[in-house]
Amino acid sequence: MAKTVKKVKAPKGKPKKLWLTILFGLVSVFYMAPIFLVALNSFKKNTFVKTQTFALPNAESWAGFENFKTGMTLGGTFWKSVFYSLVITVLSTFLIIIVTSMAAWYISRVNSFFCKFIYFACVFSMVIPFQMVQFTLARTADTLKLNTPWTIPIIYLGFGAGLAVFMFTGFVKSIPLEIEEAAAIDGCGPLRTYFKVVFPMLMPTVISVSILELMWVWNDYLLPYLVLDRTKGYMTIPIHIQYLKGSYGTVDLGATMALIFMSIIPIIIFYLTCQKHIIKGVAAGAVKG
């Protein structure tokens, strides 16, 4: 007897997923194009960066690693700028994580008008443009002596609190209250309960918020430019790149591209390594909102 062969139907959603993959692949290429151009021009001589911006380097335009050497030596403050960027980024992220997670825990557990007001104030701060407060902020920072790399994290805390409190509050609401009650019965005070019980459970959101804040603070230009006292040599990497000027205001574009490429490579590697934690943290913080 002849066997009947059953036709296997392809999943209905497969062609749609394929087209979506192609579409978002093309979109990603457009997003990656500026990074590719920066990398391309960082190995060209200064003249060819201006005249052959979109061309591949050839024997005539190839500069090798001279642009990197020039960028790191021009001005003589590159490594100091790297140090200040690291200090500001690490301190700001640490401060945002600790303060906002504790605030979110208190807001979630204490049902009062004050807590609701603080929560909505933090959420509302996310929609206020920075340009509305930049001049007042610069003057206030000078008055309160917040214009150093060791004090500017306080300002970053104010601007980064909105998103962090929103994400942490959503996740804390998903933690059963009985766990904290059991810790209290065992003799834990509020601080011990937070650091021993609550904070370890917040790790998915902590990692997610840390990645977002690190990328924001590391790449930020406007806030340090307005606040930091540059007469004392306080410059982050983006500010240092702006000052890559020679005599008569000429700009070495090759060295500028090289330093931009050096500054974005660490954060890209960090993001690609930890991107899965961003999705997990955002999904965890959206369980209950």
Detailed description of the structure:
With 289 residues, this protein is mainly α. It has two domains: 14-64, no CATH class; 77-285, MetI-like fold (Orthogonal Bundle), CATH 1.10.3720.10. The chain has 13 helices and no strands. It has helices at residues 14-41, 46-51, 66-73, 78-109, 113-125, 134-143, 152-172, 177-185, 190-201, 203-219, 222-227, 237-242, 253-285. Helix 4 runs antiparallel to helix 10 (203-219), helix 5 (113-125) crosses helix 7 (152-172) and helix 10 (203-219) runs antiparallel to helix 13 (253-285). The radius of gyration is 25 Å and the shape is globular. The N and C termini lie far apart (63 Å). The mean pLDDT is 83.
